[in-house]
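Good morning,

Attaching, inline, the backbone tokens for the sequence recovery test we're adding to the shared suite. The designed sequence is right after.
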């Protein structure tokens, strides 16, 4: 069966137990339709980049599933009809990542990963910055005498 990752955002005025109840409900929907949830994570209440339905924050949840496409379509349909769910994103993946998602990792673990070169050399490498002095070849030579031909200031 294909592998999927799902993220959904629930309304901010739900309690944590109600938001986790939504995760369990949609897990049951997948399992009833022949799929299974490999892992689920509740990320908590996070501030969104923009308002959705007059909400600035939302409960985020993440599911990793192994399910047929019909089960995923049914779960998405029910999520979109549910009043408490504001947004849904489903992605088909080739393989699930090991360990917790990036959102669940500790902040210093993520920073340590950046220093190891995960960001393409921006983490710990020092690069020489280009000099933008007066002797740039594309500027036509020395520019040290800028104000000499302007005349007196008023």
């Amino acid at each position: 069966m294909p592998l999927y990752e799902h993220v959904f955002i629930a309304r901010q005025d739900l309690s944590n137990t109600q938001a986790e109840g939504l995760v369990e409900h949609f897990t049951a929907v997948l399992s009833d339709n022949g799929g299974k949830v490999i892992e689920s994570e509740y990320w908590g209440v996070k501030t969104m980049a923009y308002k959705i339905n007059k909400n600035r924050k939302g409960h985020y949840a993440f599911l990793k599933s192994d399910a047929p496409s019909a089960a995923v379509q049914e779960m998405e349909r029910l999520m979109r009809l549910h009043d408490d769910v504001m947004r849904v994103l489903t992605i088909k993946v080739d393989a699930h990542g090991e360990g917790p998602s990036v959102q669940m990792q500790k902040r210093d673990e993520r920073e340590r990963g950046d220093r190891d070169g995960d960001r393409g050399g921006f983490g710990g490498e020092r690069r020489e910055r280009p000099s933008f002095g007066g002797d740039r070849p594309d500027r036509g030579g020395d520019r040290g005498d800028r104000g000499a031909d302007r005349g007196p200031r008023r």
